[in-house]
């Protein structure tokens, strides 16, 4: 499959800061993988994202994206490969209508008009927002706004999408709506997804999770590996999946439970089986 991102010994310190924001960070991301990056506030998650597309320049270490080593010469080529969906979609809107907004990035890149119209239509259809093409972005719901922001990124045909806390301002229904769109697009277009998030449910859909703590990689593993730590995650300023909270409460009440992490669906299956044998 091959790696589409390779980060080696990355260090970054903000000007005037007494401590490094990132210390000796190294990891690879395979093409088509969904990688979640989690950690408490100030753990370095967003700093890492900004180092990946050249918004910040590493103090030392290297970042390779799509076979290119990040530098002043390659930064614009790399940004063409990486689309970022930010926390607040209102900060990304510039067009008077939804269609204008999706077209904005294409206009900046000099995409011919016929091609632009085709890409705008395709992108809005992919995120289920065709009927809203002539609406003002400000009149949309939070979930709809994020769908439009995603359409604007998809229209530019990136290889990698970074979700930078992009579901954190949404209600649970809006969050599931947006994650569902990203999952479908990822599979359809073979995108690589990096999800920078506080949301444990969002991290749970990833193939792997990087757990950052004070700018250092604490652990890299599958969701099962990471969430098996259960309430120990609270020490790192993270929430614990609902299924782990419930499992821990049942153990406190003397119910025999497996040590391995169970997501909601598997926990329900386990409890039904347990109930049927009682």
UniProtKB/TrEMBL annotation:
Which organism does this sequence originate in? Lacticaseibacillus zeae DSM 20178 = KCTC 3804
This protein's name: Cobalt transporter ATP-binding subunit
Classify the main location.
membrane
Q: Locate the ABC transporter domain: which residues?
A: 5-239
One Gene Ontology cellular component annotation held by this UniProt entry: ATP-binding cassette (ABC) transporter complex
Intracellular or extracellular location(s): Cell membrane
UniProt topology in membrane: Peripheral membrane protein
Q: Which residues cross the membrane?
A: none
């Amino acid at each position: 499959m091959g790696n589409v991102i390779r980060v080696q010994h990355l260090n970054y310190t903000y000007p005037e800061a007494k401590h490094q924001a990132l210390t000796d960070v190294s990891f690879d991301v395979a093409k088509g993988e969904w990688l979640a990056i989690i950690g408490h506030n100030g753990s370095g998650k967003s700093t890492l994202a900004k180092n990946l597309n050249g918004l910040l320049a590493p103090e030392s270490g290297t970042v390779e994206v799509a076979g290119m080593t990040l530098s002043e010469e390659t930064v614009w080529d790399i940004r063409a490969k990486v689309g970022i969906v930010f926390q607040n979609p209102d900060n990304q809107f510039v067009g008077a209508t939804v269609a204008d907004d999706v077209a904005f990035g294409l206009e900046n890149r000099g995409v011919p008009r016929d091609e632009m119209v085709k890409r705008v239509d395709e992108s809005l259809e992919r995120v289920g927002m065709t009927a809203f093409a002539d609406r003002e972005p400000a009149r949309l719901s939070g979930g709809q706004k994020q769908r439009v922001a995603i359409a604007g990124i998809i229209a530019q045909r990136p290889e990698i999408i970074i979700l930078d806390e992009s579901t954190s301002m949404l209600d649970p229904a809006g969050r599931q709506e947006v994650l569902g769109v990203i999952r479908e697009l990822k599979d359809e277009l073979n995108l690589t997804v990096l999800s920078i998030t506080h949301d444990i449910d969002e991290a749970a859909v990833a193939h792997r999770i990087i757990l950052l703590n004070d700018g250092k990689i604490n652990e890299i593993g599958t969701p099962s590996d990471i969430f098996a730590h259960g309430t120990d995650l609270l020490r790192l300023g993270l929430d614990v999946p609902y299924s782990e909270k419930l499992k821990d409460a049942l153990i406190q009440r003397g119910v025999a439970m497996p040590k391995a992490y169970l997501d909601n669906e598997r926990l329900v299956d386990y409890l039904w089986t347990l109930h049927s044998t009682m």
